[in-house]
Every structure is written in structure tokens, then in C-alpha cells.
Design brief:
CATH architecture of the largest domain in chain A: Roll
Oligomer: heterodimer
CATH superfamily of the largest domain in chain B: NADH-ubiquinone oxidoreductase 51kDa subunit
Order of helices and strands of chain A: EEHEEEHHHEEHEEEEHH
Strand content of chain A: 15-25%
Distance between the termini of chain B: 58 Å
Largest sheet of chain B: 5 strands, mixed
Radius of gyration of chain B: 28 Å
Structural class of chain B: alpha/beta
Number of strands of chain B: 21
Strand order of the largest sheet of chain B: 2-1-3-4-5
Structural class of chain A: alpha+beta
Chain lengths: 262, 657
């Protein structure tokens, strides 16, 4: 393993060569804002908030740290320089102009001292910052590829092909799980046993837990997991809460047995 | 019409020479030969009709004349262009030849006379740059009343390396390409030089990438050769998307083999045996020419396995672009070839290490590849002797806009803008005042008159806030509003950004909105500051070169034409009279001669009055006879500010304020 030693905000740091700078900084406790970074997916470099200033000899530049591989021994990284703050603020202002209602974006902006964006809100952008996490997790981790980017430039959005309900979506909800602003949501209709992945207009049969009767998993999701788990699929037969309760009572029996034999 | 193409199997130098001789017989057939420029620009001007009319005429009259198709020589302004070559005489280039002139043109040619009024220049000998020889056409140079090419500034200031065969050969004919020295460089590269020696030659030549970045080609090849991985790829980037730029189209339509030969030499140098040419969907003819060239090269054994018996294998495939400007960016292009969405990725790990399918990949632009065979044949020192300090060789520019000679020109690096615009371009159309030239495509900068003596190369253009880009050159005259120009390019870019990263996606849209606000006269000083802040951020923090250069039109126009921005913002006035919201047309009733022309031409019929004698000049008799007109008035609420009345008024009574 080749290691590289350098400094972040004056503090010496050592990491494996070709580690991404943002991962190294976060692991070392530095606070760098980001919207499109998630440990489950490949770095994407879309939000441009994790900017840092890199000084390497006579060269210096502002780079997105999430896609910057650490290779240069002795480089100097500044996570909070005047330059970094200026560009980070403007990119956040652009996102705030896009998503003025998003609590996530507003909170990040407040931290950088921005109360309002100088830009008019974009109609219909909603709270999506186009970080791409939902697309990446659906494609690379789930393997479904139910959603993707549609359109170019400022007309870009995330959607299913042709905006139709997806037939490859398994209703797992990973997209909602990774969404930083909460604009992708799972909406469960317990009365009608329907799980909807909003805003991708895809509906699934919601299966009831045989123990508590509550809808807890999309039918296709359960089938998908069963295929992957093979003969261990039996553990999925109840909702997570009931599974936990069942496990607890089994453990209790074990403890009682142990105690009784003393 | 050309004779049926003979099929050659080319394995040795002798085979190559034999094919070359066949090519020479086609180029100089010993009878009258007429070549029509049937490139995209020629076709648009009616060259296909002319070509067919010539063939029909020859057949009907049983003339001993050969009619051939070639591509564009570069003087697109005068299309359709025709070359008439009579054995033993100079070849004459004619311009603006219409299909119905086929018969008189042929008559003149057969009589050995000049076709009056259309002659542009004559060629006494063809220069063959690859072999450094001349093919003399006429021992006695004179052709009555037609100037030689060397005396026309449009041509004499040019040096054609990349475009060496454009408009001269039939690009479907591999023999004609070979006749002018083609594929000799490949043979020599494969048989005389080790790959490292080839890379050294390209490095020593000083060749830099013609696609926009200007990265040293030799260094790129060297890094790629060193990178571990197999297979390895070469790619030709022909996704030329800049508005008003068509250098690569010109080369692909006019001389596709030069690009293929360059790619093969590059592939040999980096150790690759597979290549792709990424051609944009909007270039059907270029794609067709390229496909033919690939097929013919394969038939001749110049592409495929064991080329020239050296054990070197190479195959190339055409990948079609889907119309996205961003796919001209190398990582987006590679994603597109792989079948993924055309989006760039961060390039800290270079594509020479991890490119197409994560394998070492060398990507160069069409023009870069076309230069390679010449470097091998003429040597790196020769190539490096042309051009400026940091930029060697020539560059093809597409000279468009308010210029007299629109077209493709190839000039040595380091030539001044003035020379390109005034000598080669012939100056500003309608003899108006030069205002600015925008170089480098939509994300280039606008260069004002004060820099007309700038020596054009990669570094100088960057210094003045613009860039070489791939070679677009849009000339603007006094009637252009620079704020409107910046808005135009940002309107293009906001739709062509892929939308992946925040600054480019949101920033380009916001810059467009702010420029629109300025053009409409609603902007404040704070808006101008915000515009500059956004431009700075987009330039610094965008993921790829599209975003990093997108603010150039804004920044360069603010830098050189700040007064125009201020006039729009402070005085609510557009100095060039372009921005409709800030312009008002009115008719001076004292000057109006009541001719009614403005009202007749007005597309929205918002001008009223009555024809007749102008009241000021009317006599008593006119009044009695009811012949007095009523001066015309424009209804401001209905006026769409198209400026038609302003242009048609014979006495200048329409005012623009």
C-alpha cells in the first residue's frame, strides 16, 4: 500500500494513495458540506459544495474534494479559505434559488450565512437538488435501474422512462433512503395496502405482516430479497418490528433456561 | 463521372506506388476534367443539381469530358465551386456556378476558353505537401485574365496541411489519396520506426490538440503508451458542435483517409488495434464519406489484420453522436460510445490511463489526426518551423459572420487576426465597421478591435480572455449588441449543459436570465455584480470544460464592452439598436414623403397614413384635387421592432432611438 502524507487546514494527515480527498477529510473529522456524497455509491461530483482549495507548490486551485484522488505528497488542503467560502456560498445560493422550500438546503445556507438567495425561485423544481444519489443507488446497488436523468441543462430532472410507472422498480425505497432533501418519499396507504414511491408514480402491493397485520414490504421487494437470500428467506416472513419481538422472546427463553438450570 | 474504382491489394511499397499511379491517372486524365465541390456547403448552394446537369450534358452531347465530385476547398461564400482542368493548361476555379450554366461552362471548357465572369483564380501546379513535390499542370502559366492563386490574398496567406487534399481529390477514391502521398507515412511508420520513435517525432513537432484544449499530442501519446491495460483504444472526436464552426466536417468530407491514416499511426504508437470515430448525427455526408473510406481501406488491406505485412492490426468503427454538444467533451464522449448517458466525469484520473471501458485511450480531434501523417513524412523539424513559439503548425478556422469571404481557412499559427479577417476574409461585409470577433465556439470570448494585431495561437487567445477552441471565428460588425451576443451564446449553453453539476446547470440558466434582464432594460447595477459573481463561480467550480469555459462570452464582453452593459442598465439604451425592448422606431413627419412603402412592408401592419404628395410640398391644386398624402405614423403598441420600415424608407425618415 502506497501512502500519501499531506495537511488539511494545517493538520498532518496520511492516507492510502488514490483515496478520495473528501473521504479522508471526513474520516479525520473535518466538516465539509456535501449533498451528493454517500458511502454506498461511487463519487459523482455533482453538487460542487465539497469544494476545497488545494495548494501544490506554485499551483493552487479550487476542486471538488469528493472526486479528487489524493496522490500528491505534501499538498496543502484548505477546507475553509476565503476562496472556498466564496464559491461554496454561490453554489449554495444557486441551489437555494432552485429549491427555496428545501429545509436541507436552507439549513446548509444558514450555516454559511445566507438567508435568502438573490435569485428567483425556479418553478416546479420542488426540493430536488439533482444530486443523483437516487439514480446511482437504484442502478448500482439495487440493480434495478428504474429511474434516470431526463433532459439536459436546466431542464434536467429525475424520472422513470417516459414518466410511466416503472415495471422494474421493486419498491425497495433505497432512493428515498439516500435522498438528502427528502423529496423522494415512500407513501404507504395502509388501508388499501399500496406502497407508492413518490414522486416516481410507481405503486406496489404492500404485504401485511402475518403477526401484527401492518403493511411492511412491497411484494416485488420481498421476492427480490427472497431470491438473494435463498434458503434463508424464511427470516423475512414478518415485519422488522415483529421479527425483533420474536427474536427477543426466543432469547428470553434461552436466558430463562440458562437461569433455571443453575 | 469517375471510372469504376479498381480494387487494389496493398501490401508493399510497389503496391502503393501502383495505386498512386492509378490515382494520378484519375486526377490528371489527359482530357478535360471538371470537378464540382459537392460538400455540404456546395450541396446547400445547388452543387448536386449542377453536378447532375454537367453529367447529363456530357452524356447527351457525347463530349470527351470527365466530370468528378470533390468536397469543399474552403471558399464557401462562392459555392457552387467548379474546377476546370484542360490538359496542358492551368486549372481554373470558378465560383457561383448555377445548374443552368452547365452547358455554357462545358462549351467554354471544350473550346479552352475562360467561362466569363465566374473565374476566381488559376492553379499552375498542384503542391503535394506530403511528398514536397509539385505536379506542374501548365508549362506556360498564363491563362487570359485569371490571376494565379498566389496573387489572391485569400489563398496566398494560407498553408494547407490538414486540408491538403480538401477540394482537390475525390474523397471516395483511395487511389487519389495515395497519389498525393497518402499511406506512405503509415508504411514508413510501421516499417522504419519503433512506436517510441513515432511518439518522439510527434512530441518534437510541437503538435497540440486541435479540438480545443491544446494539450501536447506527443505527451498524451507517451502517457497512454506507459499506462497499463489491454485492450487500448484510439478515438477520433468528430462531435463538432460549435455554432458556425465546421472545420472537422470539411476534413471528413474532403479527405477522410488522412484522418484514418493519422489514427493508425497513433494506434501503432500507443499499442492499440481498435479505434472509434465519434461523428455527430448532424453530419450525414461526413459519416457516409468516412464509412466509404473505411470500407475501401479494408478492401485494400490497409485496414484489418497484418497491415503492410508488419503484423500490425487495426480496425475502426463509427459511433454516432445523438446531438448533445457536451459529448464533444472526452469523458462524456466515451460514456456515450459505451452506451451510457453522455455526461462528463472528473478527469483527475486521465483518460489516457482509464478511458473507454476504463482502458488506456488516446482521443484526438479530426484535425489533429489529419496532421499526423505529414509530421511523419516531412519530419518534426519541418512542422515545428511553422507557427509561433508555443503553437506549431497550422490551424483551420471557420470564418463566418459579417465577413466577405465566408469559409474554411488554414493558416500558420501566429498569423494576426487582422490578416485573417481583412486579407483572407476580405474585410467586413457591406464595408461596415469591425466590432469584435468571437473565437473558440460558444464558450469562447469576444475580442475587440484593439486586439486585431494579436498573433493567433493557443496562448495569446487565452491571454485576452478567449480561446482557440476548435477554430470557430465569428466576426461581428457595428450592428451587433455585445450584451445580446452574450445572451445568445448563454441561451445555447444553458440547453447544452448536461445538467450534472450545480454551477453549470443553474449558473448558465441564471446568467442567461440576467443577460435577458439587461437586454430588456430591467437590470440594476446589483444584477451586473451578481452576473459577474456567478460567471466567476461557474468558471472555477464546474466539473468539465464546458462549464469552465461557458462564462467566457459574459466575462469577455464585460471586460471589453462594459460601456454597452452600462448603457443598457443606466440609460436603458442599446447603443447598437439591437435590443428590441430598448429601441423605438418613429417617423419624422417633416421628412416623410408619404410613399407608403413602410406601411406596405410592415409585417404587423401597424403603420398608418395615406399616400400622396407630402403636405409640405403640396400645391393648392393638389389640395383641391385631393392628392395630398398623410405622413405615416407607427402604432408603438403594435410595433414588433423588426426594423423593416427603418431599412426600406427611401428618405431616411424612420428614426431609431
Amino acid at each position: 500500500m502506497t501512502t500519501v502524507s499531506f495537511t488539511i487546514d494545517g493538520r498532518p494527515v496520511t492516507c492510502e494513495r488514490d483515496s478520495m480527498l473528501l473521504d479522508v477529510a471526513l474520516a479525520n473529522g473535518f466538516d465539509i458540506p456535501t449533498l451528493c456524497h454517500h458511502p454506498a455509491v461511487e463519487p459523482y461530483g455533482a453538487c460542487r459544495l465539497c469544494l476545497v482549495e488545494i495548494i501544490q507548490g506554485r499551483w493552487s486551485g479550487v476542486e471538488a474534494s469528493c472526486t479528487y484522488p489524493v496522490r500528491d505528497e505534501g499538498m496543502v488542503v484548505r477546507t475553509d479559505s476565503e476562496k472556498v467560502r466564496r464559491y461554496r456560498r454561490l453554489n449554495l445560493e444557486l441551489l437555494l434559488g432552485r429549491c427555496p422550500e428545501s429545509e436541507t438546503v436552507k439549513e446548509m445556507a444558514r450555516k454559511l450565512g445566507i438567508e435568502t438567495s438573490r435569485l428567483a425561485p425556479v418553478p416546479q423544481a420542488g426540493e430536488c437538488v439533482l444530486c443523483g444519489l437516487c439514480v446511482a443507488v437504484c442502478q448500482d446497488q439495487v440493480g434495478a435501474g428504474a429511474i434516470g436523468f431526463v433532459g439536459r441543462g436546466h431542464e434536467r430532472r429525475v424520472d422513470t422512462p417516459y414518466g410511466e410507472p416503472s415495471d422494474v422498480c421493486i419498491g425497495c425505497g433505497a432512493c428515498a433512503e439516500v435522498c438528502p432533501t427528502g423529496c423522494v418519499r415512500i407513501v404507504d396507504d395502509q388501508a388499501n395496502k399500496i406502497r407508492e414511491i413518490a414522486p416516481f408514480h410507481t405503486r406496489h402491493n404492500l404485504l401485511r405482516c402475518p403477526e401484527c397485520g401492518k403493511g411492511y414490504v412491497a411484494e416485488k421487494h420481498l421476492q427480490h430479497l427472497a431470491r438473494r437470500l435463498g434458503d434463508k428467506a424464511g427470516i423475512l416472513e414478518a415485519c422488522p418490528v415483529c421479527r425483533g419481538r420474536r427474536r427477543a422472546s426466543e432469547l428470553l427463553k434461552v436466558y430463562e433456561k440458562v437461569l433455571n438450570t443453575r | 463521372m469517375n471510372e469504376t474504382t479498381q480494387t487494389f491489394l496493398i501490401r508493399t511499397l510497389d503496391d502503393l506506388e501502383e495505386a498512386g499511379q492509378a490515382g494520378r491517372r484519375r486526377l490528371y486524365p489527359g482530357r478535360v476534367k471538371i470537378k464540382v465541390g459537392v460538400g455540404t456547403c456546395g450541396i446547400a448552394a445547388g452543387a448536386s443539381e449542377l453536378y447532375r446537369a454537367l453529367i447529363r450534358e456530357v452524356r447527351e452531347k457525347g463530349l470527351d469530358v470527365e466530370v468528378a465530385a470533390t468536397a469543399c476547398i474552403g471558399l464557401c461564400q462562392r459555392e457552387p465551386l467548379v474546377d476546370v482542368q484542360v490538359p496542358g493548361r492551368s486549372r481554373v476555379l470558378y465560383g457561383d456556378v448555377a445548374a443552368d450554366q452547365a452547358a455554357p461552362l462545358l462549351e467554354a471548357a471544350c473550346r479552352g476558353e475562360i467561362f466569363g465572369g465566374h473565374a476566381i483564380a488559376r492553379t499552375d501546379a498542384d503542391e503535394e505537401i506530403l511528398t514536397d513535390t509539385r505536379h506542374v499542370l501548365a508549362s506556360k502559366a498564363a491563362v487570359d485574365g485569371v490571376v494565379p492563386f498566389g496573387n489572391v490574398p485569400l489563398f496566398s496567406s494560407q498553408l494547407r496541411i490538414a486540408m491538403r487534399n480538401c477540394g482537390i481529390i475525390d474523397s471516395d477514391s483511395i487511389e487519389e489519396y495515395i497519389a498525393r502521398g497518402g499511406y506512405l507515412a503509415l508504411l514508413n511508420a510501421l516499417t522504419k520506426y519503433q512506436p517510441d520513435a513515432i511518439i518522439q517525432m510527434v512530441t518534437d513537432s510541437g503538435l497540440r490538440g486541435r479540438g480545443g484544449g491544446g494539450f501536447p499530442t506527443g505527451r498524451k501519446w507517451a502517457s497512454c503508451r506507459k499506462a497499463p491495460g489491454d485492450p487500448r483504444y484510439v478515438i477520433c472526436n468528430a462531435d463538432e458542435g460549435d455554432p458556425g464552426a465546421y472545420m472537422d466536417r470539411g476534413i471528413l468530407e474532403g479527405d477522410p483517409h488522412s484522418v484514418l491514416e493519422g489514427m493508425m499511426i497513433g494506434a501503432y504508437a500507443i499499442g492499440s488495434s481498435e479505434g472509434f470515430v465519434y461523428v455527430r448525427e448532424e453530419y450525414p455526408l461526413a459519416r457516409q464519406k468516412l464509412a466509404t473510406a473505411i470500407k475501401v481501406a479494408e478492401q485494400c488491406g490497409l485496414m484489418g489484420d497484418d497491415i503492410f505485412g508488419t503484423g500490425f492490426n487495426f480496425r475502426v468503427r463509427i459511433a454516432r453522436g445523438g446531438g448533445a454538444f457536451v459529448c464533444g467533451e472526452s469523458t462524456a464522449l466515451m460514456a456515450s460510445v459505451e452506451g451510457r448517458v453522455g455526461e462528463p466525469r472528473a478527469k483527475h484520473i486521465h483518460t489516457v490511463e482509464s478511458g473507454l471501458w476504463d482502458k488506456p485511450t488516446t482521443l484526438n480531434n479530426v484535425e489533429t489526426w489529419a496532421n499526423v501523417p505529414v509530421i511523419i513524412e516531412r519530419g518534426p523539424q519541418w512542422f515545428a518551423s511553422i507557427g509561433s513559439q508555443g503553437s506549431k503548425g497550422t490551424k483551420v478556422f471557420s470564418l463566418v459572420g459579417k465577413i466577405k469571404n465566408t469559409g474554411l481557412v488554414e493558416v500558420p499559427m501566429g498569423i494576426t487576426l487582422r490578416k485573417i479577417i481583412y486579407d483572407i476574409g476580405g474585410g467586413i461585409a457591406d464595408d461596415k465597421q469591425f466590432k469584435a470577433v468571437q473565437t473558440g465556439g460558444p464558450s469562447g470570448g469576444c475580442i475587440p478591435a484593439e486586439h486585431l494585431d494579436l498573433e493567433v495561437d493557443f496562448d495569446r487567445l487565452t491571454e485576452v480572455g478567449s480561446m482557440m477552441g476548435s477554430g470557430g471565428m465569428i466576426v461581428m460588425d457595428e450592428d451587433s449588441c455585445m450584451v445580446d451576443v452574450a445572451r445568445y451564446f448563454l441561451d445555447f449553453l444553458r440547453y447544452e449543459s448536461c445538467g450534472k453539476c450545480t454551477p453549470c446547470r443553474e449558473g448558465n440558466q441564471r446568467m442567461f436570465e440576467l443577460l435577458d434582464k439587461i437586454c430588456n432594460g430591467h437590470a440594476t447595477e446589483a444584477d451586473l455584480q451578481l452576473l459577474q459573481d456567478i460567471a466567476d463561480t461557474v468558471k472555477t467550480t464546474s466539473l468539465c470544460a464546458l462549464g469552465k469555459s461557458a462564462p467566457n462570452p459574459v466575462l469577455s464582453t464585460i471586460r471589453y464592452f462594459r460601456n454597452e452593459y452600462e448603457a443598457h442598465i443606466r440609460d436603458k439604451r442599446c447603443p447598437a439598436g439591437v435590443c428590441k425592448a430598448l429601441v423605438k422606431y418613429s417617423i419624422n413627419s417633416a421628412l416623410c414623403i408619404c410613399c407608403g412603402r413602410c406601411a406596405r412592408e410592415c409585417p404587423v401592419k401597424c403603420i398608418t397614413g395615406q399616400t400622396g404628395k407630402p403636405p409640405a410640398k403640396a400645391t393648392k391644386k393638389d389640395k383641391e384635387e385631393g392628392k395630398v398624402g398623410v405622413p405615416y405614423v407607427i402604432d408603438q403598441a403594435a410595433c414588433v421592432k423588426c426594423a423593416t420600415c427603418f431599412e426600406v424608407c427611401p428618405v431616411g425618415a424612420v428614426k431609431r432611438t
